[in-house]
Amino acid sequence: MKIGLIGTGLMGQPMAIRLLGANVSVIAYNRTPDKLQPIADAGGIVADSPDKVIQEADCTILMLTDGTAIAETILTDKAISYLPHHTIIQMATIAPQESRAIRERVVAAGGEYLEAPVLGSIPQVKTGELIVMVGSTRDQFIKWCSVLKHFSPEPIHTGEVGTAAAMKLALNQLIASLTSAFALSLGFVQREGVNVEQFMSILRESALYAPTFDKKLSRMRERNFTNPNFPTKHLLKDTDLFLTQAEALGLDTSSLKGIRQIIQKAIALGLENEDYSAIYSAINIDS
Ligand SMILES: NC(=O)c1ccc[n+]([C@@H]2O[C@H](COP(=O)([O-])OP(=O)(O)OC[C@H]3O[C@@H](n4cnc5c(N)ncnc54)[C@H](OP(=O)(O)O)[C@@H]3O)[C@@H](O)[C@H]2O)c1
Question: How much is the average pLDDT of 115-140?
Answer without folding.
Answer: 98
